[in-house]
Amino acid sequence: MFEFLLQNPPKPVQAWPPEPPPISVNFTRPNAWADKHFGQWCRNLTLDRHTQCPSGSPFHWYICCGETMTDCCFGIQTWLIIMSFSIFTVIFALLIFTFWLGPSPPPLQKLQIPSDGETPIILSTSG
User: For this UniProt entry, which segments traverse the membrane (predicted)?
Assistant: First the structure.
């Protein structure tokens, strides 16, 4: 169910075609940064299938997957997994130590017993 959390980061694939495909004359080139799409390409030159994944973010990415490695699969960034696990571990450890050590005990009190046989007097030590 949560296999996407444990995916390995994408590894660069080097494919050296004999010659790059020709660029169409009608191909519109982006003129501004807002027009550019930075999604990863999943290419299989043997099957001539090329898929461009959606653009990732600092919190997620898309990696190539599937039988032909031309499908896009969602993955969570490694730093986010590590930070979430670390924060959870610290909070869990703090809760364990809080319950294990418990609240602090009340301050000790001294009992003064008079020598003449009267009732004992409790003296507080917090002062």
Answer: 79-101
